[in-house]
Write a structure and sequence with these properties.
heterotrimer, A alpha/beta, B alpha+beta, C mainly alpha, A: alpha/beta, four-stranded antiparallel sheet, 30% helix, B: alpha+beta, 10% strand, elongated, binds iron/sulfur cluster, binds magnesium ion
Chain lengths: 337, 462, 312
């Protein structure tokens, strides 16, 4: 049993727009263990970014609003802190990198200065010391000729190099958690592997936790310890990577798996896209959000939202199929009590 | 919790439907524009201006060149009346026989004149001042001020003087208006003034001579000297030559709006053709044409407007509107040409022109069918912003005397004349300036509204 | 960078040649003999002028003489027609500095004001300061410069009469107080334009990813504003400064006229009104060259501020 460094419970986030209120994140709970990787997966627009950005205090308010929930970092509440206090953990205890490294760095500041800035602000270092350390950080993310590179501007870097610089920057203060929001989506396939490799390497040396947001289940299978599957603003299944892949307990997770190519035998396996699209978050259905697309849907699913069922220690699924009265199915892993 | 039903869902096939009706580009743009309050108000203002210009002269039939000398530099007011007076008759003035014309002995100080008043009713034809002689004075100086004089150095305009101690009257006929004047009389020793004066406030009555009233058709039957007649009505007042400002604004609107609308029309049209041509053919032709456009852009605009205006020359009796129009077109087309060329290149890249060409479309058909509808939004926006630009240019040139030749009024030249009398009669500047500003403002806001309404990026954002 | 600069300079020289040629052609379009207007010229002067400008020679020859006279380093713009014995070079030398000071101050006011107000409107987006400033900006764009000049003067007159003595001179030139109102008035239109541009630019930058990165780094809002937002937002504003110099220069004509400032603009307008051809030609070419090179200077300066341009 390892220690939870971040505990998020019942987080809900709304956006007020001209079209109405978007309930982007609904009652999301998850834990991040020290030194482990939590992967958050789900299709586009399901609220993954909003979830992590709310924890970091990065959602724009207004239009955004955290309506409920808590997030405890080492037991300390960090949700809804005023900027000054939030800045004591942002960039210090939690580092963050984003999807598009090309636009995530200030185009008119050298890479070295941007990394050094974090150290100057949080560690009170002089500009020279901070810059030297920035060069070291760049070297640790395997950027060749780091001394020279630190003096260059973002437009002189390639995408992969920029993402490394972003990692170097988020690692500057030795954070306990690194949040990576689709860190490889904008990059070439070959570079993707390198970036993940660097992240894993640093995780080992620093004993750092990672929250990895991705669409790529293959990546999840390779590096995640725990997985949270999000759908329409909710976590519909969470558990260890083995739970999710080998004992999938939610029809959506099953659907995701069938939509994913695998390299283990089974050459004839057909990739099955999930038909339909997620529900409108302006007015989420009162029943299960997956009802419209679920091949196992039952009348009950339409009427009321499924309860979370704890199947084994740490493996939770929100689906009526786990109700004792529900008919058994062939693919859904069930625990009968 | 109620009893749950775990039987398979009886789902009816859900057909996903777009709830929004699909609208054409222009319908959509129009709906957006209508929501933009500022743009719509501007549109109404522009329509009102059009009516003012087109129908104004029909409803307000006053000759903009006619001088009303009774009412020069008149601020806006309700209709005025004037008192009928006879022909001006010279006044002998008053000389007191039993008072010495020269001071008998030189005095260090003398008193201020007593009993300063007018000899009869003051009118704008003349004001006749009289006062009691001052012991020790050998003459008097007369001053006129428009506010109460604070001290000896603040007496205002020196009108003249008398050169004998017993000449105790003065007649003022210097461009009198119906307003309050403060007349001061200062005794002198024949050369220098004594530091004492008396002041009287006088408001002359607007007057008109019988002959004048008759010749201007202001004289109703049976009226005679001493009675009142109503003068011509000038709702916006008159300028320094007594011309009706409202009539001049209407006439000036024709010039300003003519240039403001036709110059952009012509140069945008030319730019569209030029840029469309360059973009459509591309390659060498494009490079050459755009290089030339670059040079024209580099010409300092207003300097060359002035230069062209001089070069074209204005013959006697011409207004100079056409040369200005030509100069504007010659210098302003490149920006539109660049814009349209860019659009055409973008559309060409999108490939559906090629597709159409493969299907056997002919050249000019292709241009009309695809490029024009796709660029017309940008062109419309350019056109809207070009109007204030042209109006500004006209105003600028007219202001420095290089625009529309007098006596043709334009808003710019009216401002030019108004600035000269700005301190005493601000309305002569304010009216044309407000008209320019409102017109430019309306077109700018409409242009902003159009940009927003036609911007497809904004469409995607919602 | 050096190659770029040289290329720009070469293009600039060609443009100036184009301006000079256009000026020459325009002036030769003037109906009638340029020496034969109502300002009678004595026969002797006339002969001198004819020889000097080659007016008796064919037009191509005249053009060459004209171009040769304009050549740096010692361009010779000739002698004024109306101000006897005054060389155009001297007119420029005496009066351009006045215009330049006025223009520089106006640029300073408009740039400082534009950046400041633009930033303010972006910070207070859709709140009272934003609404008020943007209303004024729309006014600033829609009111002609001579109206501002007139209003500015009116204001000074009223302030002075309220104070009872001449606090700020209403017209003329000499001390710093003379310069204040004219340069402010001159910069107003540009300031409005820059404010608008700065506002859009700021709002664009706020939504950039790197601002989110900066927040995730735990930087204070002040630091983000000054170090990340402002610098990036100012860049597009600088690019329009070059063309705006032309606007301010020609706007100076009017301001100099209204405030009775002895700048080159006023003499140019005077020359135009009196059809003093040598002064018109000389100052047009001078102004043209000045403006062309100002645009180049601003572009090169921009290169020093924006690393993306500097390195390429
Ligand atoms: N600033 C905002 N204003 C309004 N709605 C927002 C805003 N930010 C996010 N949303 C809404 O929240 C929902 C979740 O967005 P989020 O960015 O978290 O999705 P995501 O899971 O990260 O998707 P992706 O994989 O595409 O990054 C979206 O449907 C979006 O409509
Ligand atoms: S609750 Fe019902 S609809 Fe939802 S996933 Fe489970 S079976 Fe499907
Ligand atoms: Mg996302």
């Amino acid at each position: 049993m390892s220690e939870n460094i971040l505990e998020v419970t019942d987080l809900s986030v709304e956006f007020t727009t001209y079209g109405g209120t978007v309930k982007a994140v609904r009652d999301v709970s998850f834990n991040v263990e020290r030194g482990k990787t939590l992967a958050i997966v789900g299709e586009s627009g399901c609220g993954k970014s909003v979830t992590v950005q709310s924890i970091m205090g990065l959602t724009p308010t207004p239009p955004g609003k955290i309506t409920s929930g808590s997030a405890k970092l080492n037991g300390r509440e960090i949700l809804g802190l005023p900027t000054r206090e939030a800045n004591q953990f942002r960039g210090v205890e939690i580092g963050m990198i984003f999807q598009d490294p090309m636009t995530s760095l200030n185009p008119t500041m050298t890479i070295g200065d941007q990394i050094a800035e974090t150290l100057m602000v949080h560690r009170g270092k002089s500009r020279r010391d901070a810059f030297n350390q920035a060069v070291e950080l760049l070297a640790r993310t395997h950027i060749p000729e780091a001394t020279k590179r630190a003096k260059q501007y973002p437009f002189e870097f390639s995408g992969g190099m920029l993402q490394r610089a972003m990692i170097a920057q988020s690692l500057a203060c030795g954070p306990a958690i690194l949040i990576a929001d689709e860190p490889t989506t904008a990059l070439d396939v070959t570079i993707q592997a390198q970036i993940l490799e660097i992240m894993l390497e640093l995780q080992r040396t620093e004993n750092m936790s990672i929250i990895l947001i991705t669409h790529d289940l293959a990546v999840v299978a390779r590096i995640a310890d725990n997985v949270a599957v999000m759908y329409a603003g909710e976590i519909i299944e969470s558990g260890s990577v083995d739970d999710i892949f080998y004992q999938s307990a939610h029809p959506y997770t099953v659907g995701l798996r069938s939509a994913m190519p695998s390299n283990t035998g089974d050459r004839d396996k057909q990739l099955l896209p999930i038909a339909g699209s997620p529900p409108d978050l302006f007015s989420p259905p009162k029943g299960c959000g997956y009802y419209a697309r679920c091949p196992y849907a039952m009348e009950a699913c339409h009427e009321s939202a499924p309860d979370p069922y704890t199947l084994t220690e740490g493996h939770i699924a929100r689906c009526w199929l786990h109700h004792d009265d529900a008919p058994p199915t062939d693919v859904i892993h069930r625990v009968t009590r | 919790m109620s009893v749950l039903d775990f039987s398979p869902a009886r789902r009816t096939a859900q057909i996903e439907q777009l709830t929004r009706p699909s609208l054409s580009y222009w319908q959509d743009a129009w709906i957006r524009l209508r929501k933009n309050v500022r743009a719509i108000i501007s549109l109404y203002i522009i329509i009102l201006l059009g009516i003012f210009t087109a129908l104004g002269p029909v409803l307000w039939q006053v000759d903009p060149a006619l001088q009303d000398l009774n009412q020069v530099s008149q601020p806006p007011s309700l209709p005025k009346t004037a008192i009928l007076v006879g022909q001006y008759e010279p006044w002998k003035g008053i000389v007191i026989e039993d008072f010495p014309p020269e001071a008998i002995e030189y005095l260090e100080m003398v008193d201020a004149p007593m009993g300063l008043r007018t000899s009869d009713h003051p009118t704008t034809q003349r004001v006749r001042l009289i006062w009691n002689p001052v012991h020790g004075a050998s003459g008097y100086n007369i001053y006129r001020n428009q506010r109460y004089p604070e001290d000896f150095n603040d007496l205002g305009l020196p009108l003249g003087g008398t050169f004998a101690g017993n000449e105790v009257s003065y007649e003022d006929r210097l461009s009198l208006e119906s307003r309050s004047y403060y007349y001061s009389v200062v005794p002198t020793d024949g050369f220098d003034e004594y530091e004492s004066f008396s002041v009287v406030e006088i408001i002359p009555r607007t007057s008109i001579t019988l002959d004048e009233a008759r010749s201007r058709g202001l004289l109703p039957e049976g009226k005679t000297i001493g009675e009142e007649v109503s003068l011509k009505f000038h709702p916006f007042g008159t300028d320094y030559l007594g011309r009706d400002i409202m009539a001049r604004l209407m006439e000036g609107a024709r010039v300003s709006l003519f240039i403001g609308i036709f110059a952009p029309l012509f140069y945008v049209l030319f730019g569209v053709i030029y840029g469309g041509f360059a973009g459509y053919f591309g390659g060498q032709i494009d490079a050459l044409l755009m290089r030339f456009a670059d040079f024209v852009v580099a010409l300092p605009f207003l300097l060359f407007m002035i230069l062209f205006k001089i070069a074209f020359g204005i013959g006697p009796g011409e207004s100079g509107i056409v040369p200005m129009l030509i100069a504007l077109v010659l210098l302003s087309w490149p920006s539109t040409a660049r814009l349209v060329r860019g659009q055409v290149l973008k559309i060409r890249e999108q490939g559906y022109i090629d597709a159409a060409r493969l299907l056997g479309g002919r050249h000019h058909y292709l241009v009309l069918r695809h490029i024009i509808p796709n660029t017309i939004g940008v062109i419309l926006v350019t056109l809207t912003f070009a109007v204030p630009f042209a109006i500004f240019t006209e105003a600028f040139l007219s202001f420095i005397g290089m625009g529309v030749a007098p006596p043709h009024p334009s808003w710019g030249s009216m401002c030019n004349e108004g600035v000269k009398t700005m301190l005493s009669h601000p309305h002569e500047l304010i009216f044309p300036a407000v008209f320019i500003s409102i017109t430019v403002l309306a077109f700018n806001l409409l242009g902003d509204g159009l940009t927003e309404a036609l911007d497809s990026r904004m469409r995607a954002r919602e | 960078m050096i190659v770029y600069t040289l290329k720009r300079l070469l293009a600039g020289v060609i443009t100036v040649w184009f301006i000079a040629t256009a000026t020459f052609i325009a002036m030769h379009q003037v109906p009638g003999d340029p020496l034969l207007n109502d300002k009678a010229v004595s026969a002797e002067i006339r002969k001198n002028l004819e020889r000097r400008y080659g007016l008796d020679k064919p037009i191509t020859h005249q053009y060459l003489i004209f171009l040769r006279n304009m050549l740096p380093p010692n361009p010779d713009f000739g002698i004024s027609f109306t101000q006897q014995n005054r060389r155009v070079n001297d007119i420029i030398k005496d009066h351009f500095p006045v215009s330049a000071i006025l223009g520089l101050l106006a640029i300073f006011f408009s740039a400082a004001g534009g950046v400041l107000f633009g930033a303010l409107t972006a910070i207070y987006r859709n709140r009272l300061p934003d609404i008020v400033i943007m209303f004024l900006v729309i006014l600033g764009i829609s009111v002609p410069s001579f109206v501002f000049a007139a209003l500015g003067q009116l204001l000074l007159v009223n302030v002075n009469s309220l104070m009872g003595y001449s606090l700020i001179p209403v017209a003329g030139w000499g001390s710093f107080t003379h310069m204040l109102m004219p340069s402010l008035v001159l910069g107003l239109g540009t300031m409005a334009l820059l404010t608008r541009l700065m506002r859009t630019s700021m709002l664009d930058v706020v939504n950039e990813d790197y601002i989110k990165t900066a927040r995730a780094k735990g930087l204070s809002p002040q630091r983000i504003f000054f170090k990340h937002q402002l610098r990036n937002a100012i860049l597009p504003v600088i690019t329009v400064l070059g063309p705006q110099i032309a606007v301010i220069t020609t706007g100076g004509f009017i301001v100099e006229l209204v405030f009775a400032i002895p700048g080159l603009g006023r003499y140019f307008v005077q020359a135009v009104q009196q059809l003093d051809y040598t002064v018109i030609m000389g100052t047009t070419v001078f102004y043209g060259a000045f403006l062309v090179f100002m645009v180049i200077v601003v572009d090169i300066l921009y290169g020093f501020i924006d690393p993306r341009v500097r390195v390429q």
